[in-house]
Amino acid sequence: DGVTEVLAHRSDNLRDKFVEIPCSEDYDSHKRFEGCTPRKCGRGVSDAVITREEAERIRRIAERGLSLGGSDGGASILDLHSGALSLGKHFVNLYRYFGDKIQDIFTEEDFALYRDVRQRIQQRIAEVFGISSSSMYLTKPTFFSRMNSTEAKTTHDEYWHPHVDKVTYGSFDYTSLLYLSDYSADFGGGRFVFMDADSNKTVEPRAGRVSFFTSGSENLHRVEKVHWGTRFAITISFTCNPEHGIGDPAL
């Protein structure tokens, strides 16, 4: 694996850590949006955007939603925007499947907190990359993930392969992750790894920690397999192209 350098330890309390790296050419094959498409690329970590208490509240939203389904393998997702929920080896639409019962699972407060957290993360990314927050749009997929050590049953469960978000999804320009549980306390393995030519740089999850980066090949990454326990996170992705924008979820 080459040398591994830890970009953020779980025990660190980072106000703001940012590492600038040269942008890849991935953005050139898509329409550019002045004042938003990355000209400065890199990766950042902050423990100062979301509190641990807020992260716990967000995690409870994920736990309630995922308790309705869950994958047979080790990786389950819940997308409050599209309603996609892992169920066995497939996905169902949460809103269609549960109908009005959804009101018993989520509250207006849940969705208000989700929106508020999303806006603060968007604001922070805009500040760090020197762009206008209003030129960024939430895009899909934006989703909760729950990972454990159960062996993969389908390719959807194989979350550990290296990938580039811009190549995988096209619409992504900025990717963020909000961690909802603690590395080495709630789960083992499951660190986030940036795969650079010379070495790997890892981020150890910590509840309330936000990790964010430009979505091109300059940030090839993967997640280590979870060996024990349960890892919760939410991936929140942004695009510069309004045509790929999505709205916040609403009850």
Automatic annotation (TrEMBL):
Pfam families on file: 2OG-FeII_Oxy_3
One of the record's GO cellular component terms: membrane
Gene Ontology MF terms: dioxygenase activity; iron ion binding; L-ascorbic acid binding; oxidoreductase activity, acting on paired donors, with incorporation or reduction of molecular oxygen
Record carries keyword Iron: yes
Cofactor(s) recorded in Swiss-Prot or TrEMBL: L-ascorbate
Membrane-spanning ranges: none
Domain called Fe2OG dioxygenase: residue spans: 140-242
SMART domains: P4Hc (SM00702)
Keywords annotated in UniProt: Dioxygenase, Iron, Metal-binding, Oxidoreductase
Entry annotated with the keyword Metal-binding: yes
InterPro entries for the chain: OGFOD3, Oxoglu/Fe-dep_dioxygenase_dom, Pro_4_hyd_alph, Pro_4_hyd_alph_FE2OG_OXY
Gene3D superfamilies from the UniProt entry: q2cbj1_9rhob like domain
PANTHER family, alphabetized: 2-OXOGLUTARATE AND IRON-DEPENDENT OXYGENASE DOMAIN-CONTAINING PROTEIN 3, PROLYL HYDROXYLASE-RELATED
Protein name, UniProt field: OGFD3 protein
